[in-house]
Amino acid sequence: MNLIKGLLVSSALLVAAPHVAQADILVGFVTGLSGPVSSIGIPNAKGIAAGQAYIGEIGGEKVRVIQLDDASDATASARNARKLVEQEKVDILIGTSGAPQTLAMATAAIEMKVPMIAVSPIAAISNGEGGPWVVQTPQPMPLLVQGIVDHMKAHGLKTVAFIGFTDALGDLLYDSLSQSAKAADIKVIANERYARSDSSVTAQVLRALAARPDAIMLGGTGTPGALPAIALAERGYKGPLYGNNGMISADFLRLAGKAANGIICPTGPVIAAEQLPAGNPIQKVALDFRAAFEKANGEAPTDAFSSYSFDGWLVFADAAKRAMATGAKPGTPEFRTALRQALFATKEVVGTQGVYTYTPADRHGVDDRSRIMVQIEDGKYKLLP
Questions:
Q1: Fold for domain 23-139+287-366?
Q2: How do the domains of the chain map onto residue ranges?
Q3: pTM: predicted TM-score of the whole model, two decimal places
Q4: How far apart are CA 33 and CA 305, in angstroms?
Q5: Is 85 in a helix, a strand, or coil?
Q6: Where in this chain does the entry annotate a coiled-coil region (predicted)?
Q7: Most buried residue, 47, 73, 121, 231, by most Cβ within 10 Å?
Q8: Class of domain 141-267
Q9: Per-residue pLDDT tens for 308-336?
């Protein structure tokens, strides 16, 4: 009789075991594995994989990721976010590649009252009921572009032309340039735009050159961002050429080729980790990221985008650990609320792109430690003073 009772107890434990797994923390991750922004989305996915390899368990609970491809389409980004929350019951959202897509996803997250970590830059958004709900890992564009304007001013440049995307990212870059340039008494004398899907930017480049600027800033990213650089090189442009952190990409370098040489870009410290001054706290995390990336993906990172999603994972892990300490259980509205509150109480979390401290009034969370200036030389990034 005791033997039978013992077997029944053992069986009950075995049946109960799968139920424990329901406490897994669920992360809904959306990225563009296909479409025009895939040169950003694929690295984003590899960065999440590196994050899982680096931290796979939080507060004794396993973390499970459900990943969806939005095909670089903003409508799909929002639809995927809703699916992950309403059907998969994820605790947090991370994503996506491209500013318009990320904005659409963030809007859905706010409506559903689910915390989100954006891994592409987005413009100002409403906090929503009970919010704010969204933080981001990419440096704010004004902070990055200020590095360009400071460099221009230090070299006595007085005018600049802008050639960038027609979308929200192009607007964000142009607005940041206009504001910083005005304060530095530098005039923006041309504003030329093109779509990511365009195959030629000849007309835009000719108009920008006709304005005779002292320098040109490029407001495109990934592979489409290479078009103006190539067109300018073909027309013999030799003046200062500034890019942005979205050009720190193997795909951009491959397509732009020698036309990329000399481009000066503001970017995060991870790109030149070995060149950082001794004692910089970001250096160790950046090197840890590279090791985790190789472990997860079987190759070394060659882009800037994967580190943004990796930093998103670090921020999430830190917040989730503190949310778990409240006693709230993953999979419940209480845990989502605790996770949101923890996100906006993040203090000095060292990542690869910066040191993050979020507050309800600051969804960016970084300062000047998150920006360096590099110059492209034969496919490598040289740290500038």
A1: Rossmann fold (3.40.50)
A2: 23-139+287-366, 141-267
A3: 0.81
A4: 13
A5: helix
A6: none
A7: 47
A8: alpha beta
A9: 999 999 999 999 999 999 999 999 999 99
Residue 169 contacts residue 155 (beta carbons within 8 Å) = no
* Cα gap 298→278, rounded to integer Å: 28
User: What span, in angstroms and rounded, lies between the C-alpha atoms of 81 and 85?
Assistant: 6
Q: Coil, strand or helix: which one is 39?
A: helix
Strand order in the sheet with 159-165: 187-194, 159-165, 215-219, 241-242, 264-267, 372-377, 380-383
Stretch 109-131: mean pLDDT = 88
Q: Give the Cα separation of 282 and 351 in Å (integer).
A: 6
The dihedrals phi and psi of 114, each to the nearest 5 degrees, come to -125, 130
pLDDT tens digits along 336-360: 999 999 999 999 999 999 999 999 9
Backbone angles phi, psi at 303, to 5 degrees: -145, 175
The tokens describing 132, both together, are 């704010």
Report yes or no: 207 and 176 within 8 Å, Cβ to Cβ: no
Distance in angstroms (rounded) separating the CA atoms of residues 267 and 290: 17
> What is the spatial distance between Cα 273 and Cα 285, in angstroms, rounded to a whole number?
9
- Tell which residue, 81, 76, 75, has the closest CA to residue 118: 81
Same fold, 23-139+287-366 and 141-267: yes
